[in-house]
Design goal:
The chain has one domain. It starts with a helix and ends with a strand. It has two helices and four strands. The model has no long low-confidence stretch (mean pLDDT 86). It is 41% helix and 36% strand. It is elongated, with a radius of gyration of 18 Å. The longest helix is centred in the N-terminal third of the chain and has 18 residues.
Length: 81
């Protein structure tokens, strides 16, 4: 029974390594004359992130959740680059 669990865990790890990738992204917010906007003349760069996920969509979701928790004052104005 123990050998079956180990083999199953090894197979699951192999599948995860086959389909998961590293995604690199960085958050940013833009300002126009000191006010927070979607398109502005100055940019404030936030954290640079490395996320291990199975798709870019999941990586973006994880990044937005992390940045919204860390910088709640920017809310929905956070963009990813």
């Amino acid at each position: 029974m123990k050998n079956k669990r180990i083999k199953l865990k090894q197979k699951l790890n192999w599948i995860q390594r086959m389909y998961a990738n590293n995604y690199f992204m960085q958050g940013l917010v833009q300002f126009d004359q000191g006010e927070l906007t979607i398109c502005g003349d100055s940019v404030k760069w936030l954290d640079e992130l490395q996320i291990y996920a199975t798709s870019n969509k999941k990586a973006n979701k994880i990044a937005f959740e992390f940045l919204n928790e860390k910088y709640p004052e920017y809310g929905i104005m956070i963009q990813l680059f």
